[in-house]
């Protein structure tokens, strides 16, 4: 029996399979988790926080040079598939930008489209790029230029049941535009999403659909730390009505939160982040997941973070 367990543990270690509860990944800092389900497997595309130094980025600020992807078939054992894209692979960014912020990934006709923000070498401003791969774990090849007519961060792509894809992102406001069928170009002018809170700042939009309801969810900061909120509508382009709070602001001072919501094996989950592994520095974050429950009228019950 002992030999069997030793063999299993060795197999898992050699295959880079990690076991964890919240926070899900414990051997590196991860943030901004976009979870997607492809072929009965959950893939998480997070940001990868590292530490800035005098010669690497801006000390005290966010520092990200690459992306890893993690997968799991049971939400407990996570496999790290390693680096899927680095700033050096993106010709339109500065290889010293360290600004590979919150990404997303969707699948269409057997190809995987990985969306990421980073700073443009030309203007220094955040733009959104696309990299395409044949598998959810890459390799991903970046397009030569960022998506035209998009300035900002936190890309989120939603594909409706009729095949129309929409890009949501944040900057001064939260914006949306339709995407062309190639998923690399806008098919409509960006519009500012109306009827959202006027006070404070919103970012990190994430759109999903359930029972004909379209949920626009977003972190919103009014004071010091972000609260996850949502607005509902009956169309991916809105109009949306602010409906409620998904998760309260952090009581322990982690400024950002950033999330995604997916259904897996008939249960809905909220993926989000906190600074569990770095309590004194909130730019080194860790991703978490918790179950999410809907009320009969489609509204969402507030998620209370669990640590285990
Ligand atoms: O990870 C960098 C930034 O912090 C993200 O783009 C925001 O959504 C916030 O989580």
Would you kindly provide a written description of the structure presented here, covering whatever features stand out?
The protein is mainly beta. It is 4% helix and 42% strand. The strands form 5 sheets. A 5-stranded antiparallel beta sheet has the order 1-5-4-3-2. Strands 14, 15, 16, 17 and 18 form a 5-stranded antiparallel beta sheet that branches. The protein is globular, with a radius of gyration of 19 Å. Residues 12-20 have low confidence and may be disordered. The structure holds beta-L-arabinofuranose (FUB). Beta-L-arabinofuranose is lined by residues 31-32, 47, 62, 101-102, 153-154, 203-204, 256, 258. Belongs to the glycosyl hydrolase 43 family.
Key phrases:
hydrolase, 308 residues, 4% helix, binds beta-L-arabinofuranose, five-stranded antiparallel beta sheet, 1 helix, single chain, mainly beta, Carbohydrate binding module (Family 6)
Write the SSE topology.
Elements lengths: L1 H13 L2 E3 L11 E8 L2 E7 L18 E7 L4 E10 L17 E5 L2 E9 L6 E8 L7 E2 L10 E7 L5 E6 L3 E6 L11 E2 L8 E2 L3 E5 L2 E9 L5 E7 L7 E7 L12 E5 L2 E8 L11 E7 L16
Antiparallel strand pairs: 1-5, 2-3, 3-4, 4-5, 6-7, 7-8, 8-9, 10-11, 11-12, 12-13, 14-16, 15-16, 16-17, 17-18, 19-20, 20-21
The structure holds beta-L-arabinofuranose.
Organism: Leeuwenhoekiella marinoflava DSM 3653
Family: Belongs to the glycosyl hydrolase 43 family.
Protein name: Carbohydrate binding module (Family 6)
């Amino acid at each position: 029996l002992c030999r069997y367990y030793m063999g299993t543990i060795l197999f898992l270690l050699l295959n880079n399979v990690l076991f964890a509860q919240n926070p899900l990944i414990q051997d590196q800092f991860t943030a901004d988790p976009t979870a997607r389900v492809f072929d009965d497997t959950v893939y998480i595309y997070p940001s990868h926080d590292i530490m800035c130094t005098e010669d690497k980025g801006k000390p005290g600020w966010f520092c990200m040079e690459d992306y890893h992807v993690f997968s799991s078939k049971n939400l407990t054992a996570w496999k790290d598939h390693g680096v899927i894209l680095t700033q050096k692979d993106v010709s339109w960014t500065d290889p010293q930008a360290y600004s590979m912020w919150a990404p997303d990934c969707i699948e269409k006709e057997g190809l995987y489209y990985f969306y990421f923000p980073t700073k443009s070498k030309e203007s220094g401003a955040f733009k959104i790029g696309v990299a395409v791969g044949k598998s959810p774990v890459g390799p991903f090849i970046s397009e030569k230029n960022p998506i035209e007519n998009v300035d900002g961060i936190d890309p989120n792509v939603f594909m409706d049941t009729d095949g129309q894809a929409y890009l949501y992102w944040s900057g001064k406001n939260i914006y949306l535009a339709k995407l062309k069928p190639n998923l690399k170009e806008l098919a409509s002018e960006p519009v500012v999403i109306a009827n959202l809170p006027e006070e404070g700042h919103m970012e990190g939009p994430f759109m999903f659909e359930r029972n004909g309801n379209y949920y626009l969810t977003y972190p919103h900061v009014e004071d010091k730390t972000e609260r996850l909120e949502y607005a509902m509508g009956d169309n991916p382009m809105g109009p949306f009505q602010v409906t409620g709070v998904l998760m309260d602001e952090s009581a322990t001072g982690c400024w950002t939160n950033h999330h995604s919501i997916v259904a897996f094996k008939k249960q809905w989950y909220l993926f989000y982040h906190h600074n569990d592994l770095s309590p004194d520095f909130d730019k080194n974050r860790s991703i978490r997941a918790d179950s999410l429950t809907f009320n009969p009228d489609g509204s969402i019950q507030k998620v209370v973070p669990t640590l285990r």
